Amino acid sequence: METLYIKLYEKYSKLKVSKDHELDQADKEQEGKFVDYMNAAETLIKHLNNDKMRLSEVIDELRSEVVSLRTAKDEQYDDFQQRLIEEKQKNRDLSAEVEQLRELQQEIPRSDQHEEPAIISMQHSPSVSREKVNESPMRMTRKKRARLSMEANSETNSTASGLHAPSTGKKVLPDQPIDISKAYSQSECCQGNIDNEGPCKCVFQNLVESLIDMKVSVANHPEGRCIHLVHQSSGYSFDLLWRNKASSTGDVWYHVSSLGAFANVAPEWMRREILIFSMSMCRVFFERISRFIKHH
């Protein structure tokens, strides 16, 4: 019986040793796998940390670039805002200056050249009262100035009895016929005609300018001397050339120089380079010119 126990014990010991050996082997295998997993995990973690650091650096660079771009854009925006303010101020100043010039041009178109001769002539006219003479030239309309000038001329003609003949120096009686060409000496600036080379600036030219509201001057033309007219506020200008001057019914040639501000609104007849009409149509021509300028 004791021998049986001994055999069983030996067999049990062998089985236990074998079982322990198998367990140790399994533990070693599991430990090896765990170590491999740990190494792989550490490698992956290290790689991810490196990527994280690299991405953080990229983010920092992008952030600094965004900040620099934003700063540059803010500076550019401030610069543009400053320029816009300056340009607006310049535009306001220019608009104010243009408006001031327009007001001056409308209020005092030719006061020094037109009003003073008219006032002087009215002062010497007995039909014009002192109140009319002292009236402000700026408040006198063109019709009023023309009416006063006509009154002065008619009164001067009616009072020719007080004049002396330029050739004899004798006083002319009221019942005697008066030779106007002898009684009145013509100004030197008005003695020449359109073919002469002398100066043409005179009070009659001022009167014409005040009536048609245009600057009038005499210019040279290949076919002779012509009248050059300019509307100063718009820049519209043209020339008038007389043909067949020997005849009282000669033709007038209209030649446009510049349409100025009327380039887009001028009618077809104003755009023509050359327009020919008779002397009898001059009044209609200037009426149309004045009506067009007044409406525009």
Automatic annotation (TrEMBL):
Domain spans labelled DUF7806: 200-294
Segments of skewed composition (Polar residues): 151-161
Any single GO BP term: developmental process involved in reproduction
ATP-binding as UniProt keyword: no
Chain intervals for the UniProt region annotation (Disordered): 124-170
Coiled-coil ranges from the UniProt annotation: 38-107
Superkingdom, natural source: Eukaryota
The protein's name in its UniProt record: DUF7806 domain-containing protein
